[in-house]
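This part of the workshop introduces the protein records we will be handling. An example says more than a description, so a record of this kind follows:
>
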Amino acid sequence: MPRRIALTSGEPAGIGPDICLSLASRQLDCDLICLGDREMLSERARALAIKVELRQYDRASHHHTPGTLAVEHHPLRAPAIAGRLDARNGPYVVELLERACDGALGGEFAAIVTAPVHKGAINDSGIPFTGHTEFFADRTGAPRPVMMLATDSLRVALATTHLPLSRVSAAITGELLCEVLEILDRDLARWWGMERPRIAVCGLNPHAGESGHLGDEEIRVIGPAIARMRERGLRVAGPLPADTVFVPRVLADFDIVLAMYHDQGLPVIKHSGFESAVNVTLGLPILRTSVDHGTALDLAGTGRADPGSMTAAVELAMRLAARAA
């Protein structure tokens, strides 16, 4: 029986519908279910000249067939125009995430793959929303979600996610780092089959603090947390300067890099593989992957959106779900 994967179509004014529709032509070893407004998807397919049969999801098991896309219809709150945000559709976007998450928790879906959403539009609709990572953690009751981006050759996880830079230092505590490192050790074994993965931990400050001359978080917090986890048997190294840890000869010694904040780690992996990088949320009781980019409103409905990251996200979800089965 093919594993069933929920695909949320994301912000309707962005490229989410475009890249979801692009999957219809591919050979996929799963039962792929797109959650979204059927008419909106049909209109976008016509605008993009994509020939696809949108069939109704009936919860029976169906192997994905190229040229078709199973859709569970969720009506928009307002008409969707490519490239033009409408906050009235914020609740619709969140509804798709809620449906996918509840289905995964209930065993209906083996994994969730998410198209990009627009945080501002959701917040403007009156719904507090920080990001997918935090949403799924709250919905599943996971105490510590961890954002990780992965390509075939590089994995980068984040100690903190969507925080202003001015709040990062205070947010990095020994307890936080120990919990994140435990999750990396456990989930890389669970999903990737890596027993005792080799983890590189970045410092927070330039040159990892230069022995305290450029900041002391490495001495006060990061170093002691690393030492504690080594005592527990984890293979952890650091704190390492973030400007040299990504040098290929250094990376060769590690399976994953833990960066301290969003823009310390993500620019590197996006530069190395923007079209193939996948966002994976670790620390959840469910499997969730996503594209590594935003809604790209300027590309929506033009046919110029690159579906590479979406394809990679679905393929990774299939592989990881098969490993966990």
